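Incident log entry.

Two folding requests arrived from the same account within the same minute. Monitoring flagged them as a possible duplicate submission, but the sequences differ. Recording both here for audit purposes.

Request one:
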Amino acid sequence: MIPTPAASPTAPFTVGLTGGIGSGKSTVARLFEARGAGIIDADRVARQVVAPGTPGLRALVEAFGEDILDPRGQLDRAALRDRVFRNSQARHRLEGILHPMIWEAIDRQKSTTKAPYCLLVAPLLVESGMQHRVDRVLVVDCPQDLQRQRAGARDGVSPQQIQAILEAQAPRELRLQAADDVIDNSGPPSELEPRVEALHRRYLERAASAGDP
């Protein structure tokens, strides 16, 4: 596990939202956002810290060479993925460079939120071993066959690509073991609203009590 700076003790109550491909994380996040939760997208933050001209991108070029850049000087994610995919040492080096930058940026966003609590949308929260960086872990869950069906319809990717992503993510059972809360998204979308509402009220209460002296 890559060590990261400790979260600020004054940071707002934070729920880590995670789940496998096609589980419905984005839909659930939008429902929480509509109720006033502050949303932080870990994938978006990860892209921001390696944008052209950033220290993050310069650090990656120094570590892995300029061939990880595309002709426009932006990070070629496919090239970087090929470089580290089968090389655990290179992957750990990549994580050692990026994880502290990503979490520093996440903590900055958390410190400036006006929302009663934050929802950190992090697809690889369990895989990265970063559950300790949030107050609660919320898993959006559904059967793997349904994940494949939804991912194929949404992304238009091949079954082989979807299977590769599933194999790269934590097993469903491992995510559920790490969960403090679970939203079952195996049914119709209409079932999500009351489940999100119930958890939202619970998180408001926990956030309020966390701020008590």
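Request two (distinct sequence, not a duplicate):
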Amino acid sequence: MTKCVILDDELLAISYLKLLCDELNVEVVKAFNNPKIFLQEIDNIECDFCILDIEMPGMNGLQVAELIKKKIIFTTAYKEYAAEAFDLNVVDYVRKPIKKERLQQAFEKVEKLLSEEEKNTFFEWNTNLGKSIIFADQIVYIKTSEIDSRDKDLVLKNDSEIILKNLSFKHLSELLPEKNFVQISKKEMVNTKHIKVFSSSEIILDIKDSAGNPLKLSVSEVFRDQVSEKLLSKN
């Protein structure tokens, strides 16, 4: 069962959404009618997505959405917000009065996104340890092997390294979560979650080099724009 959090300033709207969610097999973890309280608590709530009303006093749903990193379904009675809503790359935009069938379509979009993300959380490949399951969130840095250019060396969070056998960066990018990994040169790829500093020609990761200093890597001119775009899209 997917889990959601509701934010709407109207208590009747919250009650109606809760009823629809229950009928559509979506668990409402918590509901808020105050945007400021919602923002104070949302980072500590485990949920798959948020349903946000747009038109609210004090702070509207568009402003709230810019401050959180959650999948979002907007609800509103005002069609003029549609363009702004989709500029924020939300999952869906549902007009009030909300119909059960229309909300179900929005929930199906969320489930599809969650399913796609789940597929890319790990993959299986031949390594120097034999056939292994690799969890994407454990990877910090990937580089072309100096021993055999067809292989890739993975540096993991615990500072250990493993070798992926006979795997191109193109194929590797298809196996990894697209939103979290970016190639910075012909021979290197990094997990963006571990980038601490990015300049026009260099990144600094949160792991150490052989001398015990933060690891610095050069960003080639060919990949510079896509690195910048990937990092900006995460903000």
